[in-house]
Amino acid sequence: xxxxxxIQTQDTRFPLSAGDGADAIHSNPQYxxxxxxxxxxxxxxxxxxxFTLGGGNDLVCRAIETLAEPLAGREIEELMAEFGEVQxxxxxxxxxxxxxxxxxxxxxxxxxxxxxxxxxxxxERGVPLWRLLLDLTPQELIQTLDFSYLEDVLTTExxxxxxxxxxxxxxxxxxxxxxxxxxxxxxxxWFHYEDDVIREKTLQAVAQGFTALKLKVGSKDxxxxxxxxxxxxxxxxxxxxxxLDVNQQWTLPQALRxxxxxxxxxxxxxxxxxxxxxxxxxxxxxxxxxPVSIALGEHVxxxxxxxxxxxxxxxxxxxxxxMRVAGISEFIVVSLMARMxxxxxxxxxxxxxxxxxxxxxxxxxALGLDKVFLEYIPHLKDRFVHPAxxxxxxxxxxxxxxxxxxxxxxx
Amino acid sequence: xxxxxxIQTQDTRFPLSAGDGADAIHSNPQYxxxxxxxxxxxxxxxxxxxFTLGGGNDLVCRAIETLAEPLAGREIEELMAEFGEVQxxxxxxxxxxxxxxxxxxxxxxxxxxxxxxxxxxxxERGVPLWRLLLDLTPQELIQTLDFSYLEDVLTTExxxxxxxxxxxxxxxxxxxxxxxxxxxxxxxxWFHYEDDVIREKTLQAVAQGFTALKLKVGSKDxxxxxxxxxxxxxxxxxxxxxxLDVNQQWTLPQALRxxxxxxxxxxxxxxxxxxxxxxxxxxxxxxxxxPVSIALGEHVxxxxxxxxxxxxxxxxxxxxxxMRVAGISEFIVVSLMARMxxxxxxxxxxxxxxxxxxxxxxxxxALGLDKVFLEYIPHLKDRFVHPAxxxxxxxxxxxxxxxxxxxxxxx
Lengths: 411, 411
Prior knowledge:
Two copies of one chain form a homodimer.
Chain A: E1 4-13, E2 32-40, E3 45-52, H1 57-67, H2 76-81, H3 83-91, H4 104-125, H5 129-135, H6 138-143, H7 156-166, H8 170-173, H9 175-179, E4 181-189, H10 195-208, E5 212-216, H11 222-236, E6 241-245, H12 252-262, E7 269-271, H13 279-289, E8 293-296, H14 303-311, E9 317-318, H15 327-340, E10 344-345, H16 356-367, E11 374-376, E12 390-391, E13 394-395
Parallel strand pairs in A: 4-5, 4-11, 5-6, 6-7, 7-8, 8-9, 9-10
Antiparallel strand pairs in A: 1-2, 2-3, 4-13, 12-13
């Protein structure tokens, strides 16, 4: 019996070195977490993170304070046995729901709360999050999830069947636990890096073993984008996958022109080409630029919009982020849908990969989702108690109990 | 020359009588405004409102404080001459954008800010908002708007042409200024009202001259919805339009069943049948329930999602609310799109109709949008300095300078 005795929030912001983290639209980010702390009578503390770029992180913390109230006094196993319903009720808070619904500050707050609950649950069971999730029965897992508004594409019965179908072949995929999960490096091509910095960081990353890299594009000047894309292709060679990240800077007509101009450097995907709410623009673009794929998700707030993107065949690489949707449970629901639609899940890592390193193991082993690679961003690695260990471009499977979310106390 | 000298916010909440304002999901609303006050060196004050249900209204106020900073020291005419660009920059604040983008708390904050700017502008020119908007040249109006991400369906050139095409026939539609704009009454059928209350309020509203009424449905129990819908039809008679408001309570499969069961009471529209982000579910439903129409918009956060709903033919009555999208300017952009797509604009009135009574006059006269009717909610009529005057079910055209947003000081 472990009871949540006190709920606390922390507004935690980390300065970055100049240029780090910047893209075409987010020019001066301060990587930040709106943290939920669930204190208990056993001494364990659940750590939940939601990611922001600094400004407004305090608003998310304040929303957490109100939304998390129903968790006070709850016993963790009892809570998680009906967590899907608890989460649904919190998401539909009769007054705060108006501020979303299911998006923006209130949904980021819910992400932090949900992640804290799962973290605490894994710590109480003394296992890493990936192990906790793999050991749940299909019914136990489904009880933690909110499927509402997905009934036309994914019922709880279909979700259960999908889990059961993949159970007998888990062993074939479990080698990933021993071998680790491949990473890719986002930190070689930030938007304001000079050409020679990009070349140098590309060569370094390839030498470290990374086989996939990302470049930020989306300049006002398409020629700049094309030049930098060719530069990174030339430095990385033809066997490295290079992803281009537009950070929503193109209109649909611009995207159609730019994708054509960038085709000859063979991008592995084009990421966030236009506004993240524009399902139908992505649908048109996906049709026009095939076989180049579209990746998106870091700004898609919930399972309902993801459902629309999938139904419209507007996305191939689903970059759902458990710091953006309602935490680990909505991440899993989106992953289940992706599996139904035959898509790939390559999370965006607002958590710097800390939590998602667990989730991609679960996705691959339990859902049979392809092992692609997981984004790696090193800027905060000295801030976590158990930072993700990436060696030769491979995430090493975490062994500590919990979701690897614990932050070091600030000096 | 009128300069904004000081920016202030007010967290203003109004208690309601028991049951008022309640629907299937918002069980205990407290109608509230996150107010932006733009103080000036001439003594006029711009009043901007964003609507919430109470909880979190403070979060919107805090977001206003940060997002409104660029307005300090600006001269109002200079500001409004490039307002579209100013608004775009505020919406893309390099850190706070992450909390949306263009939705949730930060976008509600932007709504309040934008509305304050237009209110101040009209006051400085000494005219009611509808007159200000009608007197702008097409180019002046377009300069106040942000068309980004709409280029595939509405360019600035198309918007200008649309305004110019309707200019010669304005006089034919200008009689609405003298005659007033028809209202409809939302307050007869709140969710928790007993059957006899609904019957009585229906008879009263019809006696007062209203020719359109709304009933809240979306019970867990479809039979309750059907009974209440037939009751209001029977009390109102066949010549009154009765709209059914589901407040997002149905899944797509439920919506298909319920719409069939409710068909025989001839609803004028079905409002918010399912989740407001689910463009494709509404597309399917619209096809299946025709000729019954779908109305939605009170939870659609921005022009991009509205664009998708329109492209998908998933909405007929566009209930855009200038308290939900980025204020008066994004309201006008959505109205321009609706005109392009041949749809009707019937705003949701988080402002209780105060501001929208101006905007529907503009929409009808300048854009040639149909004069349908405007929602009327009387619960806050004693809170405004110049409450909307609805007589015999008709909004009387406001004559005071500004947007009718000034709130009385709280006792």
